[in-house]
Write a sequence for this structure.
């Protein structure tokens, strides 16, 4: 019988497969009309054995166990049309994207040896690391960044009960997929802001030029 770590790992991989399948253009249109049957069908297809393993097992063997943060985002996206949940508010999304992107940018290069400090060691029950996460979760709750609070709380809870094979807290907080999602979201937002600022600048310059032209046309001609 599969243990807890196998069940949680397969569940995360199955959620990723289901989200990818339901995100396909043709399926996405059907999903709006029949969200529950399609979700169940996608999850069953991800868990049906294909030879020695189900599709979720093969994906897990390739990418490893997804972080609790990634699984929470996937589950929220899968259940949103079924339960009628609202979309994630922009503030919480941006805050989480900044956190996971920063975590990935700091963790992975240094863990690979690009520096003298290895932050991955902090994930082995370092009290200062745990205290910092607690303070961050409290601050997010006070700022009403609910998504951030839930991700931090469930990641620490999953680590405490040993939900995954890894005993390092970092593996519950962030993985390359969610780090790439966070970094991509920040870059897209920055590009949109830059484009908007350029458009605003062009409109301002055009308006200034028009005003100057109007003033010049209204000015009385000088007599010789």
């Amino acid at each position: 019988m599969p243990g807890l770590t196998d069940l949680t790992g397969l569940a995360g991989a199955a959620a990723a497969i289901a989200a990818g399948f339901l995100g396909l253009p043709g399926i996405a249109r059907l999903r709006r009309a029949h969200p529950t049957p399609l979700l169940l069908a996608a999850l069953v297809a991800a868990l049906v054995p294909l030879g020695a393993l189900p599709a979720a097992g093969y994906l897990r063997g390739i990418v490893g166990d997804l972080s609790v943060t990634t699984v929470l985002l996937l589950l929220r996206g899968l259940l949103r049309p079924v339960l009628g949940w609202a979309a994630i508010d922009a503030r919480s999304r941006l805050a989480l994207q900044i956190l996971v992107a920063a975590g990935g940018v700091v963790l992975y290069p240094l863990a690979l040896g690009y520096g003298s400090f290895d932050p991955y060691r902090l994930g082995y029950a370092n009290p200062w690391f745990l205290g910092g996460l607690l303070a961050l979760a409290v601050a997010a709750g006070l700022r009403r960044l609910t998504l951030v609070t839930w991700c931090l709380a469930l990641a620490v809870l999953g680590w405490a009960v040993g939900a995954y094979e890894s005993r390092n807290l970092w593996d519950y907080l962030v993985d390359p997929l969610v780090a790439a999602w966070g970094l991509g979201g920040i870059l897209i937002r920055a590009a949109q802001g830059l484009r908007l600022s350029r458009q605003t600048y062009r409109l301002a310059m055009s308006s200034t030029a028009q005003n100057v032209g109007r003033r010049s046309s209204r000015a009385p001609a000088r007599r010789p």
The CA atoms of residues 9 and 65 lie 5 Å apart.
